[in-house]
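User: Hi! Is it possible to get a structure for several chains at once, not just one? Here's what I have:
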Amino acid sequence: MSHIIPREASRRHRGNGFWRKTWAVLIKEFIQLQRDRVSFGMIVMIPLMQLLLFGYAINTTPRNLPTAVLLQEHSDVGRSILAAFANTGYFRVTELPTTEAELDRLLASGKVLFGVEIPANFERALRRGEVPSMLVIADATDPVAAGSALGALSRMVQTALVHDYAIPEAGAPAFEIRTHARYNPAGKTELNIVPGLVGTILTMTMLIFTALSVTREIERGTMENLLAMPITPIEIMLGKIFPYVVVGFVQAAMIIGVGIVLFHVPVLGSLFVLAGLSTLFIATNLSIGYTFSTVAQNQLQAMQMSIMFFLPNILLSGFMFPFAGMPVWAQWVGEMLPLTHYLRIVRSIMLKGATLSDLHYDAAAMAGLMLVAMTIAVTRFRRTLD
Amino acid sequence: MSEVNTASKISNPNVGDVVIDVQHLTKKFDGRAVVRDLSMQVKRGTIYGFLGPNGSGKTTTIRMLCGLLTPDEGTGTCLGYDIRTETDKIKTQVGYMTQRFSLYQDLSVRENLEFIGRVYGLDNPKAAARAAIKRLGLSGREEQLAGELSGGWKQRLALGACTLPSPQLLLLDEPTAGVDPKARREFWNEIHALAADGLTVLVSTHYMDEAERCHEIAYIAYGELLVHGTVEHVIAASHLTTYIVSADAGTLNTLSQELTGKPGVDMVAPFGTSLHVSGRDGAALEAGIAPYRRRADLDWKKSEPSLEDVFIDLMSKAQDNFQ
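Assistant: Yes, the chains can be modeled jointly so their relative placement is included. Here is the combined structure:
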C-alpha cells in the first residue's frame, strides 16, 4: 500500500478554467441523468404519449353530440326531420324522453347536450302551409360545444323536407326552429371557465402536496425511523392526506368565492352538496398524488408523474375542449380522470342547479377512483427496506 | 433487580433471560450475501457491542432484528417474538437509533418527541416529552429545530427519542459516530444506567474504547460473526503474540518496511513512537524478529495484543478465507 501521490496526475492547469469546470459539472449531470432510468424514460415517453393522445383526441368542432328528442306526435315528417338532424353530423339521438320533465332532467344531469321537441299537430300545420316551429334547447354551459352545432341548424332547415311530397313548395322554409340556449343564455365563456378552474387548480395543487410526501421521507432519511415504529401504512396514508383535505377545502372555498364576487358566476344548486362533493374530489386527488409518492423513487420522479397525470386532466376532461366531441376511446380515458367527473358536478351545481340525485354517477365514479388509488398506495407502500 | 422484574412483567411472557436469539441468519442483496449464517444470543440487561469493518453486515443484522429487513434464511426471536412473523409486536418494544439522524429536522425537539410519544400510543405524550427533555438536559432547547442542533445534541435527542416509549431493547447503530469525546463519555454513562435498569442494549461501533465499555462484544466481518464473548475472552482467544518496539520515527519507518512480510510477522502497525509487531505463531514471530532484537537503537517489549490488533488480525484472516 503506497500513499505517495504521483506528481504527474496531480499537476494542475493554469488560469481559472471556466469551461473546464463547466464541463466537469456537465459530465456529472449526464452521468446522474443516465442513472435515473425512470426520468430518462419519461424524457422520451412524455412527449410521444401526449402528442399521440391529444393529437387524435382533441376536436374543437365537436360532432355526434348526444341529443334527446321529445316527439309529441308520431309522423313521417317528424322522422324526416330527425334524420336530417343526424345527417348534419353534429347530433346523435341517444335518448327518447316522453315528457318535458324527463327532457329537463336529461339536460340538467349533462347526459345530453341538446333537447329537440317536435310539438303536436306539427305535420298538420305543415300541410296547411302554416310555418310551425319546433324547439331546440342547447346546454350552453359550454358555448364552444353548442355553438357550431347550432350554426348547422339553419342550413338543415332548408333541406330537411325537400323529399317529402304533399308539403306545399314555397321559397321560404316550411318550418322554423326556435333555439333556446339554456343555463348560459348570453354565452359567456367565464361562466363555463370559472367552475372549470376550480377543478383544475385543485387538481394541480392537491397532486403536488401528497406526491412528494413519501419520497421526501425517503430522501431525508426519516423513513427508516418511521418504518421501525409500530404504525401501519393505512395510518401513515390517512395521516398524510387529512391535513391537505382541509387545505384543499379552504382553497376551493376561496376560488368559488372569488368566482361569485368577481365573475358573477351563479350557484343555482345547493352549496352544501357542492362542498361535500368538492371535498370528495380533493380527497381523490390527494390519494392519487400519494399513490405516485409510493411508486416514485425520488422527488423528481414524483413530480414528473404528477405532470404526466395533470396534462390529460386538462385536455381530456372537458375543461379546455368539449368532452362530447372527443372520440369514444378518448372519452373512456376521460372517465378515468377525477377532473372529468368533478367538472360535470361543479358546472351542473353552479350553472344548472343540479341536485345530488342528478349527479350520483359522477360522485360514485370519483369515490371509486379514490378507493382504487388508496388500495394501490397501501399495497405499494413498502413496510420494510428489503 | 426490582426494575428487571417489573420490566419482564409487561413484556412477552415467553421471553426468558435471552432477549435476542437468532440462528443461521442470511441476507442477500442482488444475490450477494451481506450477512451469512449468523447466530447470536444476547441476555437481558447486557450491553452487547457489535464490531466490524464498514460493510460487514452490522446494520443489516440490526435491521433484521427490528423487522426492517426480512432474512432470506434462518430463524429467530427478538424479545420472544418471531423476527419474521411478529415484527409488529417487536416494533412496539424496541428502540432503534439509525446510523443517520432520522428525526424530523424541521420539527422542534419537543415536537419530535411528542410525535414519537403519540405513535407509540403513550397516554400523555406531552408529559412524556417534557420528562425526556428534562432527563436529556435539553431544557431551554425544546423549541429549537432538530436540524439546527449540533452533532452531540442531535445524538442525545435521538437516544432520548428511542428510549421515550420505554422499550425493552435498544438497537443503536453507530450512535457515537462524529461525536466529541466528552459527549461520548456521557452517552456511555447513560447507556450503563439504562442497562442497570434492565434494558438490553445492542450497539454497533468502530471505536475500540467503546468496545471495552461493553459487557460482551461480537466481531463481524464479510457478513460472518467471527468471535464473541467478553473483551478478555476475545483477546485470549486470538492466540496473538505482540511485541512493542520503541525508537525514533525515522528508524521505525524503515523497520516497519523491513519487518512487513517477514516470516512469522503477520502484522506491523505504527502507534506514535512505537510499533506493534504481532504474529499468530509465537515461535515463528520470535525467530523472525530475532536479528532485530539485538540492535541497540531499538527497545523491544513483549505485550498483550490490543483489541485493535486482534480485530485487524481477524479481519485479514476472514479476508483470506473469503477469497
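The first strand of chain A starts at residue 65 and ends at 71. The mean pLDDT of chain A is 85.

User: Great, thank you!
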